[in-house]
Specification:
The protein is mainly β. It has one domain. It is 0% helix and 59% strand. The protein is globular, with a radius of gyration of 16 Å. The mean pLDDT is 89.
């Protein structure tokens, strides 16, 4: 059996994108994000989950992340573990946000977030995410960057997860398609 489309949402200068329909119907949830752009390019995309009818979105998360990147003209490349992600209750960084002091344009993100058995009432919940960002610096094609951001970890709760929220580090989500699928 394959994935079943549960819901699709389109960001349009949105404060957040929320999926509040995580149930026991599926063992795994896959949320794909296509051409996601924050209003402000340098801002990162984040996510957090919650349980029951709670809307505080402050579950404790332990995460490990790494980044790989390449510039189109081969003058820059990167492979590193992202220190500082660790454990906490803040919204989890989901995608690369670019350099705050460069003048770039046309930044977009695409990728996925996978939740494993989020409705289980016995064990902690694991997740995996891979996002790719592309942006062009100083308006020249030679300064086009492709950045791969991978995150994996778990939520410190044995209570069933029922909702997930996506938002920009600050500001709104300008555009992007969010699709949630379930796998039984």
């Amino acid at each position: 059996m394959g994935y079943t489309l549960i819901q699709r949402q389109v960001a349009s200068n949105s404060t957040s994108i929320d999926f509040t329909n995580i149930t026991t119907d599926y063992d795994e949830y896959l949320i794909t994000m296509t051409n996601l752009q924050p209003v402000t390019d340098a801002k990162e995309v984040h996510f957090q989950v919650d349980t029951g009818s709670n809307t505080s979105y402050n579950q404790t998360i332990t995460t490990n992340t790494y980044t790989a990147g390449q510039r189109l003209d081969d003058s820059w490349n990167l492979l590193e573990n992202q220190a500082g992600q660790g454990t906490g209750t803040a919204f989890q960084r989901l995608a690369y946000g670019a350099e705050a002091n460069s003048s770039y344009s046309h930044m977009s993100h695409s990728g996925f977030l996978r939740l494993y058995d989020p409705s289980d009432g016995t064990f902690m919940k694991h997740f995996q995410s891979i996002m790719n960002a592309q942006y062009t610096g100083n308006g020249t094609l030679a300064q086009t960057y492709c950045i791969h951001w991978a995150a994996q970890g778990y939520f410190h709760t044995t209570t069933a997860l029922t909702r997930i929220r996506f938002q920009a580090e600050s500001g709104n989500l300008y555009t992007g398609i969010f699709s949630m699928y379930g796998l039984a």
